[in-house]
Amino acid sequence: MKIGIIGFGAIGFDVAKKIDQEKDQFHIIGVHSRTKNKIIDKTSSFNSPLRYFSLDEICKKSDVVIDCAPKEAFKEIVQKCLDYKTKLITVSGAGILENLEIVNKAREHSTQIFLASGAIIGLDGLSAVSEGNVDYVKMITRKPPNALIKAKFVVENKIKLENLNEPKLIFSDNAFEGAKAFPANVNVAAAVGLAGVGAKKTQLEIWADPTLTKNTHTILVKSDSSNFKIEIENIQSVENPGTGKITALSVVATLRGMISSLKVGT
Questions:
Q1: Is the pLDDT of residue 37 over 80?
Q2: Is 27 designated active site?
């Protein structure tokens, strides 16, 4: 399986490093990134240092493209993958929500788009209960201030998060609006919306909490088949505190599920 990676920040690098250790199953052909000059240096310790490709080249040459780029690049990436009938794994739930009209054309182009679970767990259960009747889905995200201080919504609304001494509610609306307001911080909210009753019907709260050292998410679900509560505490990525280490691992797990003879869970 020939794999191309787009975006080489905290997630893209960790994905590449993990896959590089498993050359018997996967082969990374190269990377497309804005930091072109840093790719060789960052992968000098890899078994196979990675090449740089243009966006067009990497989508054309790959069997699967892994999108780890900012949400703003999603529309162009998915269009290129459709053009070349290349399968796409992404962590950009926010990108999918804003470009559903393009995503829905994947079948016409005989390809598939996979949204990795990213920093959240339990999406298989949420998908299952959504086949029946769901009364409500609510998600509560709590992160240390350092994970939110550079968020688009926080900056634009001049929300002060420095020197907080108690938890502060900074957003309360639905997951659709949350994904737009925090495109790089709560892709998990978009994933929860897409897996369940829809982003506009999924309630969302975001808190900046100085008492925490981990990014935490709680999902409350009530339905006619099951009521459940999902809680997760994610260890922050060293390079980007807003991203949990589990995000890159979820991408690799998604990739592995595409070739495994046994797939566990929906």
A1: no
A2: no
